[in-house]
Write a structure and sequence with these properties.
- There is one protein chain.
- With 446 residues, this protein is of the alpha+beta class.
- The protein contains 15 helices and nine strands.
- A four-stranded antiparallel sheet has the order 6-5-8-7.
- Strand 1 and strand 2 form a beta hairpin.
- Helix 4 packs across helix 6, helix 4 packs across helix 7 and helix 6 packs across helix 7.
Length: 446
């Protein structure tokens, strides 16, 4: 019993086996043992893997930024017109183009005053700031949001024009584009070879907006909606299209070949300079002139009723902000108050107000539609109004009315003014399908 009680029930081992087991426990196995060289190699492997992972992550992040900058951002929409989108990329290209043209126009004006009038820099600065058109250019260059707002609205106009062209089946040929380029540089093959009168000043063309003077103060707050920029005189104001100043002393006449060569040089230099200054492609510049040609064709189509005989009116007006103020002005006039004195003291149209409200003889096509309709049918000498326009409320007196013949430039201006009005009507009629998003302000080119 004593022997049985001392047994453990475990299998019995031989003394040699037990010694071997103890020896194995005291020595590390080959799998657990690594030399210093092996440990360093393992550490190096882990470092390499870490570097590879870090580089890979950096590449992924960089690729994400590249995709955002080159794919996502350029295709974001800044405006939509009847389902046609205007993208960030298109907006930025147009801003670069307009900014370059503004700079060139200002530089040409400076060169003109310095070269042909011998003005000092101070005199030139004073002259430029006093010129409403040049002052507007300077303001757009100095206030990016003002330029951007104008550009995005111009691009909305372009979509409206292109959509109308598609509706009317109007297309543009290479010859049309060439004509637009020639017009831009003032080259007319039909008059080539005649005595040359050098173009020393910028070419004046009617503005595409029936916009009055003075111009509004620039606002740095972008608007997310399509807005019409207008100021309070229902008169057409000019916008200046850059015409390169001649270099050297002009001769009395140029032959057709000489004029053509000079034009080709101007055109080639223009493309090269714009490419260098803005990074824009020749394809973009071609599309710029293509749109000028298309716009003119659409303009001619929607103003086909304008002939060389246009109704002119000799009128004066007083413009105020509210209908109540207009009624007070009307009552004062009917009580015998001086029209010119009231215009000078209360009219918000400071341009005509300083002249006693006088608008002088003006083609009716220069006025916005409510004003034009009022003066077309007004009794001569009577005080009429209040007439509401986007500028405010007008009290008007028509002095005389007659049909006058227009020369070629007058017809062009009348068509531009009428086309202006057509564009505004298109904006109003399609306002529900036109959206301008404030995102454009975040993508103004530096």
């Amino acid at each position: 019993m004593a022997k049985r009680s001392q047994t453990t029930g475990l299998p019995k081992t031989k003394p040699e086996a037990a010694a071997d087991a103890a020896s194995r426990k005291s020595k590390p196995s080959r799998g657990d043992y690594r030399s210093r060289k092996e440990r360093e190699a393992e550490l190096q492997r882990r470092v390499v893997l870490g570097v590879i992972a870090t580089v890979g992550l950096c590449i992924v992040i960089l690729a994400a930024f590249i995709i955002k900058d080159l794919v996502i951002d350029p295709n974001q929409v800044v405006a939509t017109v009847n389902g046609d989108n205007i993208t960030v990329s298109q907006f930025q290209q147009r801003v670069r183009m307009e900014r370059y043209l503004l700079s060139q126009r200002i530089n040409n004006a400076v060169d003109f005053y310095r070269t042909y009038f011998g003005m000092s820099d101070d005199q030139i600065n004073q002259q430029l700031t006093q010129d409403p058109t040049v002052s507007q250019w300077l303001s757009e260059l100095q206030v990016p949001e003002q330029l951007g707002n104008r550009v995005v609205n111009d691009m909305v106009d372009e979509q409206l024009v292109r959509q109308k062209a598609a509706e009317l089946g109007i297309t543009i040929s290479d010859e049309d584009i060439q004509k637009a380029q020639e017009d831009y540089f003032g080259f007319n093959p039909e008059t080539a070879g005649q005595p040359l009168t050098p173009t020393l000043t910028p070419t004046i063309t009617p503005t595409p907006f029936v916009s009055p003077t003075p111009s509004p103060e620039p606002s740095a707050t972008p608007t997310p909606e399509v807005t019409e920029t207008a100021t309070p005189t229902p008169e057409a104001s000019p916008t200046i299209t850059w015409t390169p100043l001649p270099t050297g002393t002009p001769t009395a006449t140029f032959t057709v070949d000489e004029l053509r060569a000079q034009y080709n040089t101007n055109l080639s230099n223009f493309y090269a300079t714009v490419r260098s200054a803005t990074g824009l492609s020749d394809a973009f510049l071609n599309s710029y002139f293509e749109y000028q040609a298309l716009r003119k064709k659409v303009r001619d189509a929607v103003t086909s009723d304008i002939t060389d005989s246009v109704l002119h009116v000799n009128a004066r007006h007083i413009l105020v902000a509210t209908e109540e103020e207009a009624q007070d002005v009307l009552a004062a006039l009917q009580a015998g108050a001086s029209f010119s004195d009231l215009a000078r003291s209360v009219s918000t149209d400071t341009g005509s107000g300083a002249r006693g409200g006088e608008l002088d003889w003006t083609p009716i096509t220069s006025f916005v539609k409510p004003f034009a309709d009022a003066v077309r049918d007004a009794e001569i000498g009577a005080f009429i109004g209040p007439v509401q326009t986007e500028f405010g409320y007008h009290i008007i007196q028509v002095r005389a009315r007659e049909v006058r013949e227009l020369d070629e430039s007058g017809i062009e201006q009348a068509k531009n003014n009428a086309f202006d009005q057509w564009l505004k009507e298109q904006h109003d009629a399609q306002a529900a399908n036109i959206q301008v998003f404030s995102i454009w302000a975040s993508f103004m080119p530096k």
